[in-house]
Fold these 4 entries.
Entry 1:
Amino acid sequence: MPEWDAFVVGGGPAGLASAIALSQKGYRVCLADCASPPIEKACGEGLLPDSRAALRKLGVELNLAHGAPLCGIGFQEASLSFQAAFPNGTGIGVRRPVLQKLLIERAEQLGVEIRWGVKGLAWQGNGLTQNGRPISAALAVAADGHNSRIRRAAGLDAAKRSSLRYGYRRHYAVNPWADCTEVYWRDRFQIYVTPVSGTEVCVALVSRQQKLRLDEALRLVPEIGERLAGHRFSTTEMGSLTVQRRLKRIWREGLALAGDASGSVDAITGEGMGLSFKGAVALAEAYSSGDLRRYQRAHNEFFERPRQMSSLLVKLGDFPAVRKRVFAGLAKRPDVFSDLLAIQSGMSSFFDFTPSQVLGFSREFLSA
């Protein structure tokens, strides 16, 4: 009998969520990471309402003691601005170390063995090893990020499509001025502002330009730069990649990929965390059924809508003339933006638009 039913590589939110979901099914789970908490990463730190719902399935409840409420999303560019409330509840802005701590506590509560500072984990032949010695586990779960070494060694690196942008984030000690995530648009980059407590905001930049950093971007967006002027940084600037990648396969015998290692969408949708949590639940369900093909099918299904929406939004960032017409139309027809947010939240589809909405928005788009 293997020592472990499942051995998870990666102690970020995706790995911890996978360990929790598998443990909830009664499996003996070990999790290992080469780092030690708190493990920081450059991300927008906003969780949408469905992300909070996925966390509840894992037994993790976020409340105002952990962060700041997010009631919706707002877009701004020059004189144009519009926003909409989430149709399916309230999101939350929460610092990544806070979220990781809650996930660790839940995993330990369920009996997951967690090992920090573990070196030498690799996939060799048909199994997981540490420093060349086989690890006795019926299932290995690779939650080791975008550039997963285990994925590559296991021959699962083939992707159907992939795109890359650059992200940087920093926290400011300032009282939030909005109860939503604000997205400030400029040509080929966006700045996100998300409240993460009553006295702090997370400011994130996502761009095609590798050398564009936050200070320069904030000078190009004075409406936000002036708000932050004079307020101290509560963290230093941190960089990361945001990748949109669809893998051809996310499992093989004895191995499943999780989180960003299993594929990802651009950060522009804010759904990365939520997809990791949904994936963890789907993996545990499939493994308990004895058929990891169910994990592949579920993964493809819940990734499809965010992929479509992120592709659409990234294209708006790349084509300024089209974006400005679209935003002019949305500013005059905020009901259309509300319905688009409902589509992103999975509450409706493009087929739910009424003819009057389509005709009205088309008129505003053409006249902009």
Entry 2:
Amino acid sequence: MNFICKCYLQKLFSILPNGEVHNYYFQKYITKKIPVDDRIFLARFKLAQYHFEKFAQYANPKTNEWSYYEFGSGWDLMNPIGLSLLGMKKLYCIDIKDLIFPDILADTIKRLYLLKDKMPFNYILPQRRELHSKSNCREALKDVFNIHYKAPIDARETGLADSSIDFIGSNNTFEHIPISDILPILLECHRILKANGIFSIAIDYGDHWSHFDSNISRYNFLKFSPRQWEKYNPSLHFQNRLRHKDYLELMAKANFRIVEETAAIPVEREFDSLKKMKINDYFTDNYSYEELAVKGSKIVLQKEA
């Protein structure tokens, strides 16, 4: 299935009632991208460990009664589950749509048993639970992992109290948020975070269609003008195409202090392939090739006292 067909199929799912459910079954039974393979599974928990270590490094927490918040937790909730296993006591997770599916959550828990010896950190195995409905999954998440999952919730207005959260995490979610919503979401995160609290973020700047097709470049979406990209950018697979410097500017506007940033720089072969591409004028007029080439980043923010 070529790139254009994939885009229009996702457009169809985006306009159908319960389109996220249709998309879920398509990813599970047709593309077979979910559940993820063991390599990705282990990498997701390693990233959860990274976020936890950044919290411990910069927040210097005095007790272990930490609260955690995450928006865009996705189908498998691996990041908050990993943070729960690492010691987070109360976790608030939201999504713009209800994306809990019992079979995926059950698969995640099952592999915590099967892959325990290969996991990047030690943990006490979670208790077994029968998972057969969305409400049952919510109960299990709360009882077993201290995860309070709510959806649909707008991340611009969480309803959480001012300065109530010790730690916020975000895993490859920002790139899927419309540009106009990013600053309001950052401001809401700043409002609910405690003084000196930590916000650890991972962002993928590549075209996510390349994850499904090796023939598609990670820079593929830079070929299209904003108007052209609207045709190929379904809401269920939305990509805002922002670059690293854009996010840094938005984070500064939200009054966060950037305490650490690591940009993923392409190897020479990748950079050469980008320079040979016909990049749309919108990007070449506003960014250098070096700025366009950055593949992703990990950024640690802090709310100053």
Entry 3:
Amino acid sequence: MKKNKSFFPKIPVIPYEGPGSDNPLAFKHYNPDEVIDGKSMKDHLRFSIAYWHSFRGAGTDPFGSATISRKWEGNSDLVSTAKTRMEAAFEFFQKIQAPFYCFHDRDIAPEGKTLAQSNRNLDAVVAHAKQLQKETGIHLLWGTANLFSNPRYMCGAATNPDASVFAYAAAQVKKALDVTKKLGGENYVFWGGREGYETLLNTNLKREMDHLAQFLHMAVDYAKQIGFKGQFLIEPKPQEPTKHQYDFDVASGIAFLRTYKLDKYFKFNIETNHATLAGHTFQHEIEVAASAGMLGSIDANQGDELLGWDTDQFPTDVKTMTLAMISILKAGGIGTGGFNFDAKLRRPSIGIEDLFYGHIGGMDTYALAFKIARKILSEGKLDQFLVDRYSSYDNGFGKEIEKKKIGFKELEKIALKAREPKPISGRQEYLENLLNQYLYD
């Protein structure tokens, strides 16, 4: 890192000052050094910064051009600019006290006129990143390849009807896996940005899904060849940019992976805003993944339910995140995953301090949600309600149902002899009130 140079000279390392602080550049709930259950909060939450939004985002939206400019941009030498940008990024990672970051290959290094030139550019910046990681102790949570921005991918990458595009995408992922391994990445993400269709009039759906599965099997094989031990992750999204994407939600992703015998190699990177676009709650997607033993990592953001597109806002909804944290903690956590802030500043938020405000708010929201969820689980009131509600399956013929030791004939005999089942209240209103007691205690 360049010595005696600061890209954020007026902003210190963000301290923890507690809930009573009115300092906007301080954490109110996230104390990275606080030890809970034998682990620091930093290790529990494993916060990560999304390079693409925080250091490549320029305030664009579907209807407007860039509004955000940074002083480290603008050098005519694109590789040199990429290195300077990365120095700014690592200073930010340190000052916000985030132990991880994530990137797409084209986020950190400029794409060249040829694949070979793109690879050389990437190698130069990756060498710089490796040195910065060594100097700062910041780690790579996961890497991935951008297989959606370039016009060559307008009809998909692995699902493209042109085999030459499939080959180009394979070469790009090969290189992205190489650099992720070189940087010690703990995971690798596949987000099928354009792996879907606009119309079935020009789409062979079965063939495209077969090709996507074959592409993922090739990635698994190559990872074994190079000794990459990181976890592969699928990130579901139902739509946008395509009308229908093959990784629509966690449930369809599980079905796809099991159909093509890929399920033992992949888990899910679940994004809050993508769950919303699929018509689900964030907690639902977590529960579906956890029930299959495939909960891997989290893209921490939120959407605007009044807008039908991916707004990628910083998470501030404590209730939503608390429900998510309850499910995550009950599942045993996220292993080598983390909470990656796949969130971008609002278009008018052009100040450099806004980048800090957004992440401080997101980190505090998740830290508070984590603490509330732990309290809820430790007191056990919600869990006990579930135990009681399903207790009829803990003994008698209910237990035999779950153990698959009884069938329709035996159950018919039981039903004919028994009285009409008495309805039992689900007590939803009581439970919602109980949740609010924890949220607003």
Entry 4:
Amino acid sequence: MVELSAIKESLLKLYPFSEEELEGFVAKLKYRTLQKKALLIQEKEIANSLVFLINGSLRLYTRTEQGELTITFFTENHWVSDLESLLQQQPSRNNIEAFEPSEVALITLRDIHELMDRYPNFKLLNGLLANLSIPTSRLTSIQTKSPDERYASLLAEHPDWMNRFPQMHIASYLGMTPETLSRVRARII
């Protein structure tokens, strides 16, 4: 199965797990289909799973007084969770919404701990969790970089997002209004 090889490949990037360890991991996975706009995690809910996005796309956002603030997007073959809620086992302040019909594979925190007990190498899954954190450089760029620089960085890092997500969500991710994003796009194009 394609998704199993993608999941195994992502694990092998962290450590050369044995086939037995990989099979133990994939045996714990549960699969779920999300319809467009369905919430994988919603605010006030505790994240209890690490999720692999098989296909589709997801958006991590929070609600503010000004409206929804997009924190990041997830696309195929990426691990997903609300890291703070997962690690602290506290209610999330964020939402993770399916941006389009999506298929995911989930492994619960409990199952991860069982794997760590059985196969000590799974303590190296911290590398997956590190990939879920939002780099402070991205957050500070909203304050330190011009809108043109932020847009150029996004084009360099995630050019596929421009055609996949609406301008209003891209603008929110970049910390600008949709009108500002339109002007920036016109200048850069």
